[in-house]
Structure formats: structure tokens, C-alpha cells
Amino acid sequence: MSKVRIGLEIHCQLTQLKSKLFCSCIANYRNRDPNTNICPVCYGLPGSLPVLNKKAIEYACMIAIALGCDMPKNLTFARKNYFYPDLPKNFQITQYDSPGSDNNTCIGKSGKLEYISDKTVRIKRIQLEEDPGRLVHEIPASQSGGNSLAYTLIDYNRAGVALVEIVTEPDFNDPKEVRLFLNKITSILEYLNVCNTNLEGSVRCDANVSIGAGKKVEIKNVGSFKDVEKALSYEITRQKTMGLHEIEVKGETRHWDDKRKITKQSRSKEEEEDYRYFPEPDIPIIKIENEFILNLSSKMPELPDQRRKRFIENYQLSEHVSEVLINHKEIADLFEKAVKIYQSPKSISNWIVSDLMGFIDYESLEGKPLNEIIKIDEKHIAELARLVDENKINRTVAKKILTQIVNSGEMPTRIIDRSELTKIGDSKTILEFIEQVFMSEKNAINDANKNPNVANFLLGKVMQKTKGNIDPKKALEIIKKKLEEHK
Ligand SMILES: [Zn+2]
């Protein structure tokens, strides 16, 4: 079988910057009226000059350090020329090293990342560039029947936002690996606090795929990581089928059609020379001093792999539990905050991994902050774990309470005080408690024939055991039935 080779180009916006890459327009372009977050630099008006955002260099270098890249001595920018409506200057300011050149002038080169145990991908290059504007394809409501009057609007609010492009070598052989890698990258970006990956469009991914000696096909415009996986699976099947029929695969760019779930040819692929790269004359060469890198390295926040090791060592958690916790920074933070309130890492991690994670599958987390999905914080988890550990409630009841917390955000004790639900309602759980009492009160049960008060005595014991969290009417019914069976 010919080998499948997949490479990725990931674009992530440095959303945590205050301003854009080359001007003082604010970086947060979202939820603004179109074309209100712009200036002559964004528009590329004649005479306007770009001024490089120093913090953007710092953030991009942090990504390069996290991915084990070689750093440049001299950082330069280049113009990538192409005509497209979202690019008012007709060129994009980006970084470029001509193919085969040993010279490193990009933010990072030759890195690597182990994204699951024993699977490592090589990072070819990391570069800093500006995001183009956004095209909004509108079809007037009155004309929704036909496409002939469809038009496109341009919003330049995004133009000039700092973007870090991460290019991998074609080291993936399976779309599933790609998904795992993307999750890992997202998690690293979160930990570095350079990109809020929950924001729509803040992390975007293009992929290229080839089979055996076949040509490379690029897939663009994929909306979500889930769709990257789907688009790649489709494309691999398409190329394999062509191979079976001895049809040559063309080197081209294809777009993912989300509605029909297929890739479609969009244009034949541009070659690098089409872009006529040349050095950006308006931005001087930036010297990257050793001291700058050393200083930055010493200030790096804890990364997912380091946190996993710390969780295993400090909290005596298993490899698996630590992995689930650290994958999303918000989940790992939730765990550590809860442990500060109630020092029982075992039970807290157990509640998060075995129960809470059931409410927050990864797909729903992609693109949303945790508190939009569930109304739970560290206080809830700590209290719930403590109530169960102190036998105030049993696990079955606690699970029901958890469902309520997730939806309402109420504290467990409040739910217990108020709710009928926490009076253990289901017969199976009541029966479990009654059986325990029957085991320990054998003498009383033997007296039951002579003494009519035994049923109430046993009920009292059950109430004690459940701290009153039980429906007494139901329990008494079951006790009487069981005593009948005993006669
Ligand atoms: Zn601007």
C-alpha cells in the first residue's frame, strides 16, 4: 500500500495582544460594525508605514520555544504578492526563506512536538504574518431563490491582526492523528495564553495530502477541526479511488464543501514563484539577541506535558486521569482550584474525569468556554466530593445532584435542602440501604412477628443511615414487604 502523507498549516491569531501587528488598531475586531476598526495602515493607503508590534514577536517566539524550534538571529519580513479583495495592499506582509535556504529569518524552524506518546511530528517552520480582511458572501433575502444576484461584502476589521502560521512536515499518516495533534496545539496555545482558542476563527487549519509518489493536494476553508478530519478522510478515499482507476491526481487546491461533505477543486495550486516574494522594505531587520530568548525561556508558563508530570507526582494521579485533566487548561484549572478548597485530589479528579466530563465532550468544547457549557465551578465540585466522602449522601444521589448543578449552578447543599430529588427516591437505591440495615439488625427482624413496632424501628435506622435523605413512605412500604417475605 502506498503511504498517506498529511501535512498541516495552522494559523492562529494572537488574540491576547492589545493591538494589530503593524498599527495601533485594536486586535479584538470581533462584534464590531464592519470597517470601523481600521486605519490607513490596515487599508494600505499610500504613504502609510507599518510599525511592528513588539509583543507579537514575544508571543510568536513563545510558541516557537514551546515547539522546540531553532530561533533566528535576524528576523525579517517579506511581501507576498497576490491580488484578492480581502487584501487591500495587494500583498501580505509575512516571512519567507527561499526553499533550500539554510538561512533562518522566520520566528522558528526545525521544531518537533510529541502529541501523543510515541507520535512526534516535525515542525518545519513558524512565521508571523498579518491576517487579511474578511469576505462576507451575501445573498439578498428577496433573491434567495437564485444565486445570480449574490454579492460579496468586505470587512477589513480583521486586516492586520497578528497571525502565527505553524507549518508541519507531512508526518501524519492518518486523519485521526491530525485531530489529536490539533487538540494538542490548541492546548499549548491556551497554556501559553497567547491565543483564546475559544473564539471563532482564532485557530484555522489547512491540510495537504498525498499518497505514495502522487501529487500534493491542498485542502482549504475547513471550518472546524472535526471537519479537517472528515475532509482528509474524504480526500484520501478520492485519491485512492483515482489510483485504482489509474487516473493521475493533480496538484491543486480544493475546498471543503461542508453541505455536501466533499472536497471540490477551487483553483490550480499557485507555485511559490507566483507570489513574487521580496523583502519588506518598510520594516528593518530585527536582531534577536540570545539574552532575549533566554529571558523569554525562563518566563515560559507551565506547558501541558509539564503539568501532566506534576499532577502525577504531586497528586498521585494516574497517567490517564492526568492526561484527561490537562488536555483542557480550564479543566485542569478547575481541578486544582477544587483541590485547594477540599484536599482530596483522588475524589475530585474522579468526579471530574468519570462524571463531569460526560457533560462536556470535546466537540462541544471546541469553540466554547467551559462556563458556557456547564454552570459549575470549583466550589461545587469540592463540596460534592466532600459530601460523598463524609457519607452525607451516596454516589447515586450525588450524580443526580451533579446533573442539577450543571444545569442550574446551585450549590449541592442548597439542592439537598430544597429538593425532593435528594430524598433518595428510586426504589433500587432505597432497597440497597434497607438491605444493609436488615443485615445489621437480624435480632429485630426475628422479633418482627411479635413486635409491630419493628418496621418503624428499621425505618429509623434507614433514616439515620441516609441522614434523612430518603422518602420515608416509600422506604416503609419496602420494609413491610421485606418483613412479610421473612415470615
Ligand atoms: Zn490599523
Explain this structure.
It is a single chain. The chain has 18 helices and 15 strands. By secondary structure, it is an alpha+beta fold. It folds into three domains: 4-297, no CATH class; 302-418, no CATH class; 427-486, Orthogonal Bundle (Arc Repressor Mutant, subunit A). The strands form four sheets. An eight-stranded mixed beta sheet has the order 5-6-9-1-10-11-12-13. Helix 8 (329-341) packs antiparallel against helix 9 (345-355) and helix 15 (427-440) packs across helix 18 (472-486). The longest helix has 20 residues, at 225-244. It is elongated, with a radius of gyration of 30 Å. The protein starts with a strand and ends with a helix. The relative contact order is 0.09. The mean pLDDT is 88. It binds zinc ion. Zinc ion (ZN) binds next to helix 1. The site of zinc ion has 8 residues, from helix 1.
Bound molecules: zinc ion
Helix fraction by DSSP (H/I, runs of at least 4): 40-55%
- Cα Rg: 30 Å
Q: What number of structural domains do the residues give?
A: 3
Task: Report the major sheet.
Answer: 8 strands, mixed
- Span from first to last CA? 73 Å
Fraction of residues in β-strands: 15-25%
Annotation, overall tally of beta strands: 15
Unreliable runs: none
Q: Count of helices?
A: 18
Keywords summarizing the entry:
about 475 residues; alpha+beta; Arc Repressor Mutant, subunit A; three-stranded antiparallel beta sheet; 18 helices; 15 strands; about 40% helix; binds zinc ion
